[in-house]
Write a structure and sequence with these properties.
Radius of gyration: 22 Å
Strand content: 5-15%
Organism: Arachidicoccus soli
Oligomer: single chain
Catalytic activity: GTP + H2O = GDP + phosphate + H(+)
Enzyme class: hydrolase
Number of helices: 11
Helix content: 40-55%
Number of strands: 8
Protein name: Signal recognition particle protein
Bound molecules: guanosine-5'-diphosphate
Keywords: Coiled coil, Cytoplasm, GTP-binding, Hydrolase, Nucleotide-binding, Ribonucleoprotein, RNA-binding, Signal recognition particle
Strand order of the largest sheet: 3-2-4-1-5-6-7-8
């Protein structure tokens, strides 16, 4: 994951190898290389600059204490800053409401439907919940079939109304059905388009208004880099979502989306998805991710 970024950062720290103390010159060279590594990972210029300015400031003020070498010190500073950039601590995912209603939105192909299946599986097997999946994509019958197949694989019931062309009413009916069947988590999959469009936004906003979800999760393909960040902004402006799900982290992702979505939209990444199998869903921990990036 983020192999290129990891390698580039490692290269940046090499500037400090063998140095007995931290100096203005070796900080400057290292910081320059870190900035290049971030830009290469598709981090936006302003964020990369602010990041390296902070690293520089911290490193300049530091004395190398006892056993810590300048290289180790710099790694520690960068790790702390990466953690902070990605949100610091893990975000809350509150499933205490009875029932908990989770609305899932994102562009078509982002991995939304797959994520709904993974989340239902996670909540069932790890949290002992009794979820209901709701097929809210009224435009693509294949999306309903896909959710049905996922539901069967994990033993979770799927609510759908193939003849109903009103996504808001499907959501409302699903909530009633969930109540009758004592389901305590309702996961609503919604329609996605290939690009952000007004009709889609309006529809999801209407479902939000009707279903009053406890969590609104925005699903985005991490392979799309800065586009992922821009799409997140568009969805957040309209939906004021509660968290982000980054998918396809098993692919050749450069890292920009993971590093900068939190900073850009001020909403935390809550889950990361890294595979097509249903158990490849993880809660997102900024500290662990920073540690992984730095090897
Ligand atoms: P939707 O249109 O947003 O509902 O997207 P889908 O859930 O149908 O996913 C689109 C494609 O991406 C499918 O082929 C999925 O199997 C695949 N996919 C979803 N999540 C992941 C992931 O985390 N990693 C990989 N490699 N593929 C994924």
């Amino acid at each position: 994951m983020f192999n290129n970024l990891s390698e580039r950062l490692e290269g940046a720290f090499k500037n400090l190898k063998g140095e007995a103390r931290i100096s203005e010159l070796n900080i400057a060279n290292t910081v320059k290389d870190i900035r290049r590594a971030l830009l290469d990972a598709d981090v936006n210029y302003k964020i990369a600059k602010e990041f390296t300015d902070r690293v520089k400031e911290k490193a300049t003020g530091e004395k190398v204490i006892n056993a810590i070498s300048p290289g180790q010190l710099m790694v520690k500073i960068v790790q702390d800053e990466l953690t902070e950039l990605m949100g610091g601590v893990e975000a809350q995912f509150d499933i205490s409401a009875k029932p908990t209603i989770i609305l899932v939105a994102g562009l078509q192909g982002s991995g939304k439907t797959t994520f709904c299946g993974k989340l239902a599986n996670y909540l069932k097997t790890k949290k002992g919940k009794s979820p209901l999946l709701v097929a809210g994509d009224i435009y693509r019958p294949a999306a309903i079939d896909q959710l049905q197949v996922l539901g069967e694989q994990i033993g979770v019931e799927v609510f759908s109304e193939r003849e109903n062309k009103n996504a808001v009413s499907i959501a409302e009916n699903a909530l009633k059905y969930a109540k009758e069947k004592a389901k305590n988590v309702i996961i609503i999959d919604t329609a996605g388009r290939l690009a952000v469009d007004e009709m889609m936004m309006e529809e999801v906003a209407n479902i939000k208004q009707a279903a009053k979800p406890n969590e609104i999760l925005f699903v985005v393909d991490s392979m799309t880099g800065q586009d992922a960040v821009n799409t997140a902004k568009a969805f957040n402006d309209r939906l004021d979502f509660t968290g982000v799900v980054l998918t396809k982290l098993d692919g050749d992702t450069r890292g920009g989306a993971a590093l900068t979505i939190k900073y850009t939209v001020q909403k935390p990444i809550k889950f990361v998805s890294s595979g097509e199998k249903l158990d490849t869903l993880d809660v997102f921990y900024p500290g662990r991710m920073a540690q992984r990036i730095l090897g």
